[in-house]
Amino acid sequence: MHTSSNANVDPAELAKFSDLAHRWWDPESEFAPLHQINPLRLDWINAQAHLQNKQVLDVGCGGGILTDAMARLGAQTLGIDLATKSLKVAQLHALEAQTPNVQYREVSVEALAAERPASFDVVTCMEMLEHVPDPSSVVRACAQLVKPGGWVFFSTLNRNPKSFLFAIVGAEYVLNMLPRGTHEYAKFIRPSELARDCREAGLDWLHTRGMEYNPFTRRYWLSADTSVNYLVATQKAL
Question: Largest Cα–Cα distance of the chain, in whole Å?
């Protein structure tokens, strides 16, 4: 539905997340890290964009963990993804939890940008850029979808030896926090590369935060260290 043969998507990535779709809302599952970091991401986004009563788009929403949380803060939220099973899980959860003001659609961000340019006050694209063949295309589409003066938030993984050690060797093979093969090192994105894509798309790079994890206390926190996971707040020029 709504997809095209040239969509910016890796079929293997879609299959990977579809196979796990039924476990999205299990906080003890492979998606446990997303449940644990969600409050940190949500608070950081809300502190800058003030989500209440805003039109918000969540790109690559998966099972809707962040989408649902933003709706509960009073935003009118739309989550989009190309993984059919994940979207069905998101929709079912919204029904069961009676989450207000949330919708989901199976559509690519590029197709939605052509259909609804400058429609959203806030666009979020978290942990998704490192899973697509052409991340710059996603950045451009996010910029097209947000209104002038609106916010676009990204989070992704830096590409360097430390991130390889922490995000792949540590998280997937030593600590078993994520299924093996979740991430592909070559698809990680340096902040300088993402900054270039944002600049070319007309987004002003305003703030960055790193996300760190202590495997002994199992605690996440935001910091100034962007060497592994990092979040970016950008704003579309008026």
Answer: 47
